[in-house]
Design brief:
Blueprint: E1 2-5, E2 11-20, E3 23-32, E4 35-39, H1 48-63, E5 74-76, H2 82-85, H3 88-91, E6 98-101, H4 103-110, H5 112-130, H6 134-146, E7 158-159, E8 166-167, E9 170-174, E10 183-187, E11 190-194, H7 216-229, E12 235-238, H8 247-268, H9 275-283, H10 289-307, E13 311-313, E14 330-332
Parallel strand pairs: 4-5, 5-6, 6-7, 11-12
Antiparallel strand pairs: 1-2, 2-3, 3-4, 8-9, 9-10, 10-11, 13-14
Helix pairs in contact: 4-5, 5-6, 7-8, 9-10
Length: 344
């Protein structure tokens, strides 16, 4: 059990949960004054719920007081991805805690089936344009839906915006990109970054074509929002992996990863290729759900380059006609990315 303390004497307990096969996540119990707050609740899949409950039992033993679901006051969801909110279906039955999320992700939690259907529809359009064949698309859509099928919609009590992005001592910073309603949460000198900034991994990106308020340009701008107050943060706790002790340095590392990837794509597109081609070039032969992740990551970078005027579509005439499905063929219109800047 990892325990952290803020300068204001808030106590933070990290609970490690198995979210999906091969994916570990962090849930945090934060205790400060009258607040007993869970930050995220895991996926609700496999051992995730049991891991969370056992973690709370262990904290109860450490503190010699009841830290079970019954005494949780609030549940803060960092963003609307299933590995962070999926456990709500089980957790909400055991607690009267107020469930809180950003307005842009609220409907994901409260109208899950509707949002899943819309997202799957937009994903199908993206996969067609990326150059995947119908059989591959069907398989990827099935994979996309199956990890989310166990979740049942849960009512949300509080949206962060409605409370002025503050609840008691907790401050919420809207950092869209990885997810539309993603927030970072600050308590004194500790920041909970969700998946916005992770210790080792460059957080996954998907094109805004699939979900508004995502995309690489949005993510870059949100990184700079965090950079602007990083001097006040001594420790950053992510939704996965280990703590980050130098937030600015990690932001620079993540930007560098994307910059290198953008240039690599640009060089590859000296000849025309689809997003599916580029994905294989960047990530090689991958399997299962990783195929979808690689395509989305590639799509986010291609979308950014196209928006910034570095790419063109050479088969635009093939897109003529109502509802015509045709893979986009991208080609570089500039040989090198110069001065990719961030807005400060």
């Amino acid at each position: 059990m990892d325990i952290f303390q803020t300068t204001g004497d808030g106590l933070i307990y990290r609970i490690r949960v198995h979210e999906f096969p091969g994916l570990m996540g962090n849930v945090y119990l934060v205790i400060f004054g009258k607040y007993r707050v869970l930050i995220d609740v895991g996926s609700g899949f496999g051992e995730s719920n049991n891991d969370l409950e056992q973690g709370l039992d262990e904290i109860s033993d450490i503190r010699r007081e009841d830290c079970s679901f019954a005494n949780i006051t609030h549940i803060f969801i960092t963003h609307g991805h299933i590995d962070h909110y999926g456990g709500l279906t089980s957790t909400k039955k055991k607690t009267d805690a107020k469930v809180c999320i950003h307005e842009l992700d609220r409907r994901i939690v409260t109208h899950h089936k509707e949002r899943l259907s819309l997202a799957a529809h937009r994903l199908e359009v993206f996969l067609n344009e990326a150059g995947m064949i119908p059989e591959e698309i069907d398989n990827l859509l099935d994979l996309y839906k199956i990890t989310k099928s166990m979740y049942q919609s849960v009512e949300v009590d509080i949206s962060y915006e409605a409370f002025g992005m503050e609840i008691g001592p907790f401050k919420f910073i809207h950092v869209p990109g990885h997810c539309a309603g993603h927030v970072a949460i600050q308590l004194h000198d500790i920041l909970f970054s969700g998946d916005h900034v992770l210790e080792k991994t460059s957080p996954h990106q998907a094109p805004e074509q699939i979900t508004n308020s995502t995309g690489l340009d949005t993510y870059f701008n949100s990184l700079e929002i965090v950079r602007s107050f990083a001097k006040d943060v001594k420790l950053t706790l992510g939704g996965h992996e280990d703590p980050i002790f130098n937030l600015v340095e990690r932001i620079d590392e993540i930007r560098s990863i994307h910059f290198d990837r953008l240039n690599k794509i640009l060089h590859y597109l000296a000849e025309p290729h689809t997003v599916a081609d580029i994905s294989k070039y960047l990530f090689g032969d991958v399997n299962g759900y990783t195929i979808l992740l690689a395509l989305e990551e590639t799509g986010a970078h291609v979308e950014y380059l196209y928006q910034q005027g570095y790419l063109g579509i050479i088969n635009i005439d093939d897109l003529e006609g109502l509802f015509k499905k045709c893979p986009f063929q991208y080609v570089a219109e500039s040989c090198e990315i110069k001065n990719i800047t961030h807005k400060r």
